[in-house]
Write a structure and sequence with these properties.
alpha+beta, 2 helices, flat
Amino acid sequence: MEDKSIRCSDCSTTFTFTTSEQNFYAEKGFTNEPKRCPACRRARKQQTQGSYQSRGA
């Protein structure tokens, strides 16, 4: 495996999907590559966690 350059679907920034990340995804059984860069993934995760907290969950 080699590092892959992927364009983020949210911000269009190019980010690197490293060999170690690819191995991690394979170990977890994930078949799709990430669509979002780490910053957008973090922002989306915070956004969804905030909506759960506002519902009282």
